[in-house]
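User: Can you predict the 3D structure for this chain?
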Amino acid sequence: MRSSPPKVAIRGAARSAVPAGLIAVIAWPGVPLPMRLGAAGALFAFWAAVYARYRAAGRRQTRHEWELLRRTDRQALRRHYDERVPTMEQEFEQWGPYYAYKHQMRYNLVARAVRDNLPPGGRVLDTGCGAALVAARMLDLDAEYLGLDFGGPHIQYAARKLREADGRLRVRFVRADAEQIPLIDACVDVVVMSEVIEHLLRPDRAVWEVARVLRPGGTFIMTTNNACEVPLRSPLANPLAWFEKALGTGHPSLISHRHWVWPEPVDRELLPAQAEDVYVPHTHHIPAETCGMLASAGLKTPRWSTFEFPPPQSVTAALLAKAGSAGRRLADATEWVAQHAPLVNRLGTHLFMLARKTGAPVAADPPPGVWPGPVPQVLGPFPDDLNW
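Assistant: Here is the predicted structure, written as C-alpha cells:
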C-alpha cells in the first residue's frame, strides 16, 4: 500500500534532519574549528553514502526495465492501445482538475510553437494526435492538419470531435504507425510528436520518418518524458542526485535511473495463455542523447527546454492538487521560478524540443548505436557500458 503524502513528507523531513543538523553545527557562531571540520566530514560522508545507495538502486531498476522492454510484442501493443488506453480527455476526468490543468500546459506550448513555425496555407502532421488537442487550439489557422495515431478508437474520437468544429483549419485523420508514416517525401512543413516518442519500440525509425516527410527547413516539434527530471528527494537530503540530473542532460552516462517501460504490464486478458508479462515502452529521454539522434537524421535542434514543475508523482504535487485553485496558482508560480533558475530549469518532468531539417540523414536507415534502447527483434545481453 502506498503511503499518504503527509507520511511521505514526514519521512522526507526526517531524512533531511541529519544534514540540516550538521550544517547548523558548521554555520553556528562560536563552534570550535575541530568540531566544524568534523561536522563537515560527517556531512559529506552522509551525502556520499546516500548517493551511492541511490545510484546503485537506480542502475538496478534501469537494467530491469531495459530487460522488460525486450519482451514487448507489437500485437499486444496494438490491442493495449485499442482496448485499454483512454483518450486524453477521458484521462483528464480521471485525474482531476490539478493534473488536467498541468497537462493542458503541454498542448498550449506545442500549439504556440506550431503557430510560430507553420507558413500560411502550410501542412502540419500531428503524429500520435490522440484526442487532437493540438488541432483544437489552431482551428482558426489557414492550414491543413493531418492527425495520425496508432490507436483506432483515438482516431475515431478525434474525428467525431472536430467534424463539426468551426474554423479554417482543414482536418484529416489516418490510422498508422509513427515508424511507417504513409506520406510521400518532403510534403509537410511541421511535424508534431507530443508525448509519443516514449511509447515507440523504435524511436529512431520514427525520427527518420519525420525527417523524410519534412520539407527542407521544416520544423519538428516534440515533447516527451525527461529522464533528468527533479529527483524525488530534497536537495538537502541528496544534493548529488540533483547534480547528477542537471549535469546528465549533457552527459547521459551520468544518469543512473532511467525509465524504459510503463510500471504495470499489459492486461493478461489481452495476451495468449501462458504468455510472459508484456510491458509497453515508456522511455524517458535524455536531452543530449535525443539531440544526437535527431542530428543523425538531419534535424538540428537549436533549442530545447523542460517544463512541468513539480513532478506529478511528488508529494508537493499531491498537496497542490488538494489545495484546489490556490494550488494551481501556486503551481504556476513554482513553474515560473523553476524555469528561470539555472540548472533547475533542466529538471522539468517533460522535455520540449524544436528541430529543423537542415540536411540529409547519415544513412538511409538508422545505424546501430544511434538509439541505445533494446530492439525486441534483436536478442543480446544487457550492455553494461551502455552510454546513458
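The longest strand covers residues 214-225. The mean pLDDT is 91.
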